[in-house]
User: What shape does this take?
Amino acid sequence: MNCNFTEKVSSLIDGELAATEAHEVEHHLLSCSECQQLRADFLNLRSRIVNFETSLPPEVQNPALKKILARKRAVPARGLRWSFATQAVAFASLLIVAAIIGLLVYSGNRKPDSKQAAVVQAPSPVPAASAEPSAEPSADTTKQPDAKASPEPPKENEPAPKGGDENTPRRNPVKRPLAREPKPGEQFAAIPEIPELPEHVRSADAETMTALHFEKSETLLRSFRNVRMDEPGAAAEVKYERQRARQLIVQNMMLRREADAAGDVQVSSLLENLEPILIDIANLPDRPNADAVRTIRERVERKNIVPLLRVNSTALARALD
Amino acid sequence: MASEDEEFTMLFQDFYPSLCRFLECLLGGRAPLAQDLAQESFLQLHRTAWGTMPVGEARFWLYRVARNMAINEFRKSNTRYRLFDRVVEVMRPRARNPEQEYETQERNAMVLEMLQTLPEDQRTALLLREQEQLSYREIGQVLNISESKVKVDIFRARASLRERWNRVSALSKCAGLGN
Assistant: This one.
């Protein structure tokens, strides 16, 4: 057989060719006598195979069926054993799966506990150095809710809001127990540790607070720059700035730590430059002499802090929008 | 349970003769052995796999199991089976007239003889196609081979049988026997 269609003729009589291919082969068959003969022979073979008669006597079939059905009924023990084994395997698998799930849940619950314990224990050393242990006897875990429910929340100590604060777009920052007004003499020591919050909450909150802090600090420094020392009431003017600086020192330290932890070098360095100035203002006597005020002003000018605060607070506020 | 048995009975009655014929052709005759293997295949189906697959799948399952049993039989010594089968064949009651019976036997013997010249995989594929009318895809499913191999096996089987048939016909004509 030299024709290329021979194999396709075989597929054609089986109905296994696609319509177009079948049409093509049938068209070929019209002109190829060799393939015509091939198809005839294949069909002849088919009829011989199909017509093969089995020598199965009719009386064999029903007894065979009865035998099969009877043997099925005659072996219930095996079926019972099989079904028992299946159930046992299923039960054992269920137990194993339950044990694995239990282990996963247990380990999943343990990890946050240990982390929380580590976070909760961390603040204890700092408040332990508090100058007023009687007022705040302990800073352990039971102290945290008290600090939140304290009758002197941070807002109570804040002065009346200025125009700049209100015009600034802000989010509602999460209240934190550490924003507490330090009492005189303890402002550098009794700073509670920042409770560990989830990263995304801390990040957004820290940016909001930093922006607000920059605005407040800028306002303070502008106010301090405008203090008139030649006037008789100059000392009274400084009193407000001193109070304000004391409040901002705590926040400044907290935000600087967070900026350090977050790796925000720009904010961290600005807060680092701002911090000694705030401390100096906070530590001014009731009636500061002109030289002390001037020295601080010169430092503020030299470090160019006020414009930096303005730029950074604006940038942060825009980022928060 | 009763309905399951009813379904099984229907499948058996429909398909047992086909399976016997398939096995008989595969085994080159030996009808009693073919019937035994067909019965054993149904028994296995009823014991283990019945109810776990659709009825259509059960058909393929039976072909597969029956074919494996036949292959096992090929590996055994054939002598005693052939002797026993011939005794059974001789003792089998005859329903039709002797002339018809003789013609049928001759025709069947020729088909079986030709089929036995084929390799087992080609023979099985061809029988599943011609007698059981399975598609190439279904044959591939039963034999666990690709459709293209099914196509090639069937073509080669046909070509081989055709060549043999033409040779036998030519020899018969030369001997003046005709066909």
Observations:
- Chain A touches chain B at residues 1, 6-7, 10-11, 14, 16, 38, 41-42, 44-46, 48-57, 60-61, 64-65, 67-69, 71-72, 75 (CB under 8 Å).
